[in-house]
Amino acid sequence: MTNEIKNNLSNKDIMDYSEFPEYDILYTDPPWENRMVKVFQTMLKKDTGIVKNHDIVGILNQLARLSNTNKPVVIEYSQKGVELVIQIMAQHGHKYLKTYHCVQKNKMPFVILTFNIDVPIDTTVTGYNIVTQMLLKTDYKVVFDPFAGIGQTKKAVNMAGKSYIGSELNPKRYAQLIK
């Protein structure tokens, strides 16, 4: 791989994957609980007319089923849903390692859960800087994010000089991502 930053983006629903692309580390921020799934489904319907009826258990099961149990998986999530994420990941063979308690720039608390292989999480920084700092301390070159949103993880990966693979279902959010 050259030093050039590579971004590979797709407009795809996690439920449509039969396998994930090749990656070194999966870092993602899936919807936090069913209330957020409903918010994103409402946005999708408004933006495109597409109706999806996923729930958080199905989404997390698909994430766990398709992610590699021999590679690091890092999930940002709400403090409230930690047990569900850990339980579903374990059912699919992922080894839970640690929960890091973090705060967004707007002071909203969240957690970062690590699975399979330990990675350095710096909770003294905020926002996407957490991802950038983690990547600068590792040899991982390709990051996959199946819930790309508007691209905060992409921005962090690019700042670390690594390659990014992202997927976002909503075409409006996807358009923001590819800018």
Structure report:
- This protein is α/β, with parallel strands linked by helices and 179 residues long.
- The chain has a single domain, classed as Rossmann fold.
- The protein contains six helices and seven strands.
- The chain has helices at 33-48, 56-66, 82-91, 129-136, 152-159, 171-178, and strands at 7-10, 25-28, 73-77, 96-103, 109-115, 142-145, 163-167.
- A seven-stranded mixed beta sheet has the order 1-7-6-2-3-5-4.
- β4 and β5 form a beta hairpin.
- α2 packs across α3 (82-91) and α4 (129-136) packs parallel to α5.
- The model has no long low-confidence stretch (mean pLDDT 89).
Strand and helix layout:
Elements: E1 7-10, E2 25-28, H1 33-48, H2 56-66, E3 73-77, H3 82-91, E4 96-103, E5 109-115, H4 129-136, E6 142-145, H5 152-159, E7 163-167, H6 171-178
Parallel strand pairs: 1-7, 2-3, 2-6, 6-7
Antiparallel strand pairs: 3-5, 4-5
The number of strands is 7
State the end-to-end CA separation. Answer: 23 Å
- The oligomeric state is single chain
The level of helicity is 25-40%
Low-confidence segments, given as residue ranges, are: none
Largest sheet: 7 strands, mixed
**Please, what is the average pLDDT?**
89
Order of adjacent strands in the largest pleated sheet: 1-7-6-2-3-5-4
The outline comes out as: globular
CATH class: Alpha Beta
Approximately what portion of the residues adopt beta-strand conformation?
A: 15-25%
> If classified by CATH, what would the architecture be?
3-Layer(aba) Sandwich
